[in-house]
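Posting here for the record, re: flavin-adenine dinucleotide.
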Amino acid sequence: MKSFKVLVAGGGAGGCSVAAKFASLPKGAVGIIDPAETHYYQPMWTLVGGGMKSLKDSSKPMSQVLPKNAVWIKDSVASFEPRENVVSLRNGEKVQYEYLVVALGMKLEYNKIEGLPEAFETPGVCSNYSANYVDKTFRSLKDFKGGNAIFTFPNTLIKCPGAPQKIMYIADEYMRKHGVRNNAEIFYNSSLGVIFAVKKYADALWKVVEERNINVNLRHELIEVKPDSKEAVFRLLEKPEETRTFQYSMLHITPPMGPPDAVKNSSELCEETGYLDLNKFTLQHKRFPNVFGIGDCTNLPIPKTAAAVAAQGNVLYQNMKSVMENSESKERYDGYTSCPLVTGYSKCILAEFDYDLSPLETFPLNQARESRTAFHLKKDVLPTLYWELFLR
Ligand SMILES: Cc1cc2nc3c(=O)[nH]c(=O)nc-3n(C[C@H](O)[C@H](O)[C@H](O)COP(=O)(O)OP(=O)(O)OC[C@H]3O[C@@H](n4cnc5c(N)ncnc54)[C@H](O)[C@@H]3O)c2cc1C
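Prediction output follows.
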């Protein structure tokens, strides 16, 4: 059986960046399990959907981003056996560890919406949330001549809860520039009861939707897409027995999401929601002290973003090192997360906050104002930081 000092399950933003922090361990001490050939910088997909970047810009071969001294196990985690310190792979092999980092991200569940994924084969139906469909967003925008453009938010936790509306503001500006906005009605149909969780940024976003004449329907959950009649059916969450049907010319779908099966099926590692059960400050598992977690697969009560992953990485690393030295986890994660709320082709509201949903801003100015500098940060600076610093 293969055996590692540190085994990392998942080579996405969280797994790859944590593995890099353990680069000082001897060659072969760190193993990373991930079946994917390609590593994606998913935050760029908002810009891909808006035609500002290509899917290729957001990707690199996994072999290039994983740390050189780590062993890449190109398979999927099938299950965890934390009492034996063992992970089982889909190919039937088992891998032993001294310390485990779980970083498996989230599972997209398009198939929970009736008519999907088949409707993606038909005009106007698109989604920035998957490498398979993100290119279709810009194509749908270019083909749009008028009618309803609908942007949805599902009735589950999702990664980057700002992204479902960012693409809407981009679409609005695109339609204005191309002379079709007067023929369009734009709808933001969200399962949530608020436009954004933090009041300061929510107030700013309400102003943006009013200025741009965008219709916001809260507590509307997309349950079915009917491509033949170009209809989208929403459940009214305040009256769950009732539905409301909208015609669409363009339908941008944010899918329901959930914890990855390997975590959800491991009753000893997950909490009742199926997410990895961590101490929210130390990022250490509540029952298995040699298990840590990071990113979207965890039960940390904060919006799931790559920015949060960046803040969690160092806390995890320091605490895991302490545990390796028979000491206690002392570092604390305060819940820092950030969401660059892109509001067009040159503007952005830079939301930053913590577990208390209190703004935790980096710059000495009001970050709830739309800003070109914040947009430049999102489009040009953060991708470089991600590839050159964060993953190394
Ligand atoms: C459209 C969009 C816009 C976004 N915008 C932003 C933004 O502006 N700012 C921001 O900070 N964040 C943004 N995010 C969120 C950000 O991308 C995620 O929060 C971040 O990638 C989470 O990192 P992670 O390591 O937890 O998961 P991921 O990066 O998703 O990595 C999970 C990894 O686990 C692997 N995996 C899955 N199952 C298994 C298995 N069974 N066995 C082994 N490996 C497995 C996958 O192949 C993947 O490599 C956005 C995301 C999307 C989709």
